Amino acid sequence: MHVTILGGGGFLGRKLAARLAAEGAIGGRALAGLTLFDLAEPPPLAAPFPVTRLAGDVADAAQLAQAIPAGTGVVFHLAAVVSAAAEADFDLGMRVNLQGTLAVIEACRALPTPPRLVFTSSVASFGGGQGAVLADDARQLPANSYGAQKAAAELILQDASRKGFLDAVSIRLPTVIVRPGRPNKAASSFVSAILREPLLGLDTPLPVEEGFAVWVCSPRRAVEWFLHAAAMDTAPLGLDRGINPPGLSVRVGEMLAALTPSERAHVKPAPDPAVQAIVGGWPAAFTAARARALGFSPQEGVAEILAAFREDDLAATRAERGL
Amino acid sequence: MHVTILGGGGFLGRKLAARLAAEGAIGGRALAGLTLFDLAEPPPLAAPFPVTRLAGDVADAAQLAQAIPAGTGVVFHLAAVVSAAAEADFDLGMRVNLQGTLAVIEACRALPTPPRLVFTSSVASFGGGQGAVLADDARQLPANSYGAQKAAAELILQDASRKGFLDAVSIRLPTVIVRPGRPNKAASSFVSAILREPLLGLDTPLPVEEGFAVWVCSPRRAVEWFLHAAAMDTAPLGLDRGINPPGLSVRVGEMLAALTPSERAHVKPAPDPAVQAIVGGWPAAFTAARARALGFSPQEGVAEILAAFREDDLAATRAERGL
Predict the structure, then answer these.
(1) How far apart, in whole angstroms, are the C-alpha atoms of residue B127 and residue B130?
(2) CATH dotted code for B2-125+139-174+218-243
(3) Where are the domains of chain A?
(4) Of the residues B11, B119, B126, B146, which is catalytic?
(5) Which of A64, A124, A160, A223 could form a disulfide with A107 if both were Cys (CB 3.0 to 4.6 A apart)?
(6) Which residue of B141, B151, B239 is in closest CB contact with A143?
């Protein structure tokens, strides 16, 4: 079976690729090849199967056809324009997040056998805000362009699954922490920064209050969910291809409590209404009962998340940033 | 103020245009001109303001720019590929129902002042089926391509409203009865046919059981809702631009009871699994509390619907079909 990761050069794409290289299989099906596709050519990957690395545009039909060849059994579609960037540039967000996903559907539909499509949707596709604990049948009423584009793409993926063009599972990812590297344009960037930057000995602004709650997951857990979504029996999903995975609802203050006092001193209160306006609309908790019943594993606590970051990413982040 | 009706040559578009010609204003704002746009050039309309009739493709940016000139205050976007047609031809439905609506957003965004956009979404954008009584916050989990495309378009219209590109109100229309003319490709075509055809003295198949419930409205009521949506204050809507209007939940047997025995004899049971599969997934009732509170008037009963059809459309339908 061939596997493709769209957005294979990104933070989660690289972690997923490394995991596939280590395991050599998904759900007992051996990988015969892996294609990593991103705007810039993804970095090399040592693997027990051939790895093709392609630079391209996810909204370009011809480039996608190259990235998703005949024999592709699973496509991980992680390519996206993140929340603050999609908010700042509506056209770019529409082109990548919505039209890009429609192009992925067409590429999958052109295959002789409909592939499994694991799509990363987002908590940002919901409204509700701080007080919410969303049930599995909560509707998506996004308060930002990124979330609207993801929710619209989910609807068409759901219909394309019903039509048999592909077999989609859409994972509405919580805010993923701790992201390695640098702060980025996601409105939720601060949720990682307030843990990562202090560990690097750097000051970082806190745009919200300490009582602010966030629905989070770790990169390790996200990759587990992707692999489960790639291998699971989708028959029990029926029409509903959207999964609210069992993340962790945590307050900023609880996250800061996992730091040492000297680390914590690097976090400087700096209220930011623009960030609050976006992230404040996202729900802070989900019941996630359906996902648990479907075998998606629950997120562990903040201490484990921080330990995983130290183990997996701290050294590389230090090196990358010349610290 | 200029007004445009996309789908202005269709059944509801023509009725809406006639109503605008009769009133000359929307919510106290006088019409300076009306553009009727459809695949085929809409029929002439006598009106106290200039009427422009255009043939074109709703997914074509240049043609839309002509149809939505500077000075447009209200756009009624009724252009659509109906349910069974969108189910039979996925690409056509996507092009018109989703990409066409995205093109309408771009045309509105190009105007100096954001216009009101009244969009016809559909009961088909919901799942739930016969047993359902949907609350206003019910999510859209469509079981057909038409509904998926409408729901996805609603999400982007909602976001475009938040961004200030336009000011959208999406009306999830019930099944509209009694449609004049001939049976069409809508899966719900039978709901009109079982009243219209007997009045014309013609036999017609009944693809469902008499206990089957449908969420309906009359053409007169739909036009009332369009005009209310065009003139209403949208501030109370907030982010949520979708309206479940107060239609009527009625069983097929109740509709048939409004016919005389000799008329009713023209309705011939002929179960059709394909029609049942589409229409059977649509919810048969909504609470519609929010729409009532927002001033959308409730649908009257079957007897009034039938009387309106006799008054408004029976003679023209007879003539059109050479009966």
Answers:
(1) 9
(2) 3.40.50.720
(3) 2-124+136-174+218-243, 189-214+247-320
(4) B146
(5) A64
(6) B239
